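By convention, the token line describes the chain's fold. To illustrate:
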Amino acid sequence: MTDWNEVCPAAWQARVVRTAVVVLPGTPGVVAAWLGGSLATGYADIHSDVDLNVAVADDRLATWRDAWPTVVERCAGPLVLSQPIGGEVVGGFSLTRSWEHVDLVVHALSGLGRPAPCRILHDPGGLLEDRRDVVPAGKPWYPAGDVTLFLYFLGNLVVTLGRDELVLAHGGVGALRDLLVRLMLAENGVHKTDGQKRLNPYLTDDQRSELASLPTAALRADDVILACQAIRDAFVARARRLAEAVGEDFPEGLFVATDEHLRRELGEVRTSVGRG
């Protein structure tokens, strides 16, 4: 029998999982249950969510669309938030009064496939494979769409600053930084699928150091420009190298047009955006 105190870094996580092992198998329609996320991969810490998953008979799926928060409460205790994921996905994320974060996703048996990573809680039919692997690093790949989007966002700095929309321009700094992170993941051959709250295992020390060195921006036009310029310099250099390494084309025409647009509209001295 699994000792959940050893698996779970926090006592509350172990409590929820131990309760789920009892509650989920006895819930009508459940044919299998498992943990996903960092508790399944072994990368969990005291801040990690508990990611519960259940497979249910197809004819029971519709009833779970409204019932899933009740099941989470039986596992975790009274909730102050239960937010559906929405769309075709049944389930959602929830918080207890102590801000314990528990997710529950409900899968139709007919579309179960091979969940990964997976730590089995209940599987009398042998439907699951107990797996600990994280998303493996593959070959580097060139995210052409992200590169184009980066240059488009960068050029739109003219619009937000021209309208004196400093809040939007400041938000654009974060958007550019996020695209730089996605480029770095592509350099490492990572197709990340485990959410937005864990990056360190997927980035190299060099990448993390470069991200940490980038300037932050105050809510002033000049600071926003300087921050965007620093992110731009890092992004373009990496995108060009990656494109060459994997045999793809960096969009030089769009880059030159963006460069000239910024110089023309924002000024040579303020932007000093060069060509490489």
The chain has two domains: 4-122, 144-271. Strands lie at 30-36, 50-56, 79-86, 89-96, 101-108, 119-122. Residues 221-246 form the longest helix (26 residues).
